[in-house]
Amino acid sequence: MANTKWAVDASHSSIDFSVKHMMIAKVKGSFENFEAIIEADPADLTTANIEFRIDLTSINTKNEDRDNHLRSADFFDVENHPSMTFKSTSIVKTDDGEYDVTGDLTIRGTTKPETFQVVFEGAGKDPWGNEKAGFSATGSLNRSDYGLVWNAALETGGVLVGDQVKISIEIEAAKAE
């Protein structure tokens, strides 16, 4: 099958993250607003074109003070860098319905290659006859690689915010007409 365009259904999709806090717990959050360009054959993603643009002002960790700090120049600096982007450059099939999707991730003006493990969850028609496909993706990155280096030392040793950020993405997409 040839690549076709897919539109992300935002009400059935999410981009979430977690990071260590005080070296003992995890803080979770999400980005509420994002858009994607997906041109793919869901049965074989190796020739797909995948692009994401995430609105960093839409960060939500369920704590307004923390969210505002994350938007500040200490972290994302949304005044100068309002978006995070990802554009696929290589997709390798690793198993049936499983892929390593590598692409250029840009945060705060810094672009680095990152790889996400993507699973094609399946496809089908909704009750209104629309063709849908589901995908899950996971990955991790070091925030310091992108200039997000703010931290605070703890009295007991260690730091307030971990460097490794784990990413979890759930996408439901509708075949575009």
Structure write-up:
The chain is elongated and about 55 Å long. It has one helix and eleven strands, in the order ββββββαβββββ. An eight-stranded antiparallel β-barrel has the order 1-4-5-7-8-9-10-11. 5% of the residues lie in helices and 61% in strands. A hairpin with a 2-residue loop joins strand 7 and strand 8 (98-107). The longest helix is centred in the middle third of the chain and has 8 residues, at 64-71. The mean pLDDT is 88. The chain is mainly beta.
Cα gyration radius (Å): 17 Å
Q: What is the element string, with H for helices and E for strands?
A: EEEEEEHEEEEE
Query: What structural category characterises the helix and strand content?
Result: mainly beta
Looking across the biggest beta sheet, what order are the strands in? 1-4-5-7-8-9-10-11
Strand content: over 45%
Find the count of extended strands (DSSP E, 2+ residues).
Answer: 11
Distance from first to last alpha carbon: 16 Å
Q: Helical residue percent? A: under 10%
Main beta sheet: strand number and arrangement? Answer: 8 strands, antiparallel, barrel
Tally of individual helices: 1
Please mark out the parts with pLDDT under 50 across 5 or more consecutive residues, or reply none.
none
Average pLDDT metric: 88
- Shape summary: elongated
List the helices and strands and how they pair.
Blueprint: E1 4-8, E2 14-21, E3 25-31, E4 34-41, E5 44-55, E6 59-60, H1 64-71, E7 83-95, E8 98-107, E9 110-125, E10 131-142, E11 161-175
Antiparallel strand pairs: 1-4, 1-11, 2-3, 2-11, 3-6, 4-5, 5-7, 7-8, 8-9, 9-10, 10-11
